């Protein structure tokens, strides 16, 4: 009898989703063995900025812990340090334009990532360093760098994958974990389109000195994620960890500094409006001009108040030039401060999803608005579910892929649409009466959510 060949799986994209899948397949190798190869278009782990903060939820961490072996899990505290009791509250407060709290969803306390992963009801989040999580997940993974996938050709038994360097390789299953602009998705499902919100956002990763953090905390308490709603369709978002970052020797300031991600969103029409009547050129290759643009919008759209002054002060900390050469504290690489379009992909927006040996995972299938912080969680959940489905792999029956897709489509489409609704709700310009209505609704919701959570905690012990 012919010996059974070990099937080959290619993962294209070494982001959070692709790497989680890699670990899960290796972890399961006693149950089902695969040849796994993972390809990444970046040239090295430090090729580009890998992001400051993402939120990992109880569901995301559960899946992450399912995927990774204990040797990797033991490094997780580097990327997701446990909340510091009394110093950090891992949750979100939403305030109005002057800093009055409108919505403060209840927070379930947890000690560390293991306790977080056990929370089975509601949504709890830990603010995670994306760059360090990527590093932790890269450990021991033989990523093939500089391998940009450009297209594939599917046959009965498998898939021929072509790379930009001209090479071609064969696999039995191709997993596209290649992010929102996935060439694999574009080829597999050309009719699945990216949806544009008409909202622009600018994101900056900054290091904030302690005295400014104290000012933020005076308004928001020690909550790590703060959103403030403007009245002109603009909103501001801040997500931090109150753990001092190590500074380089030559940085003379003794004051502790903290990692803060700052986001300002506004209706894209405002890119064309001359808000202060003087002609200003915004060039996305010139960070100083983008930061000036954001500050001008804040000055124009926001009322005169302490919160507005604080936002302006924070935006002043964003790097105004593109650094060249090795970069000092706190940035190992540089996050270009640019205007970006808010986009998503609803995977259920097309009539049918063709199931084949080419499978999608993460942002490639269902990029979503970052407003609820669910993107990375769904990518990691996909990896977990797909690795379980692959246990059923046989050479001539790939219906396990359909089973994975069924669950994935339902879960992620719901989150894409939820995130879309919340984004639009907080981006609609409103007049004074509208402000009154909005504030009243959110305050009532706040009371109700907190009440139901209280009732819930009486009924369920978790
Ligand atoms: C550099 C970076 C920084 C980010 N920063 C943040 C952040 O600060 N906050 C936040 O909320 N979210 C951030 N995100 C998005 C967040 O990580 C994703 O929403 C989430 O992790 C989904 O993961 P994913 O694995 O599906 O895709 P991603 O994490 O986007 O990974 C996709 C990977 O595929 C690679 N790739 C793309 N095309 C090809 C190709 N043709 N061939 C080979 N490889 C390819 C990309 O280089 C990337 O490494 C960031 C994403 C990236 C890539
Ligand atoms: C968030 O809002 C609540 C409710 O108004 C407020 O009491 C609290 O100080 C704010 N910050 C934190 C960390 O909860
Ligand atoms: C193919 O596999 C699925 C399980 O993934 C199973 O339910 C189905 O019966 C199989 N079909 C055939 C023809 O073996």
Protein model, in words:
This protein has 462 residues and is of the alpha/beta class. It has two domains: 8-40 and 143-194 and 345-425, FAD/NAD(P)-binding domain (3-Layer(bba) Sandwich); 81-135 and 197-344 and 430-462, no CATH class. 35% of the residues lie in helices and 21% in strands. It has 14 helices and 16 strands. It has helices at 16-27, 58-67, 70-73, 76-79, 113-118, 130-138, 183-188, 210-220, 287-301, 306-315, 363-366, 375-390, 399-425, 432-459, and strands at residues 8-12, 35-39, 53-57, 89-95, 101-103, 125-129, 149-154, 159-163, 168-171, 173-176, 195-209, 223-229, 235-240, 257-267, 339-344, 358-360. The strands form four sheets. It has a seven-stranded mixed β-sheet with strand order 5-4-12-13-14-11-15. Strands 2-1-10-16 form a four-stranded parallel β-sheet. The chain has a three-stranded antiparallel β-sheet with strand order 7-8-9. A hairpin with a 4-residue loop joins strand 8 and strand 9. Helix 12 runs antiparallel to helix 13. The longest helix has 28 residues, at 432-459. It is globular and about 70 Å long. The relative contact order is 0.17. The site of one 2-acetamido-2-deoxy-beta-D-glucopyranose has 5 residues, from helix 13. One 2-acetamido-2-deoxy-beta-D-glucopyranose (NAG) binds at residues 392, 397, 399-400, 403.
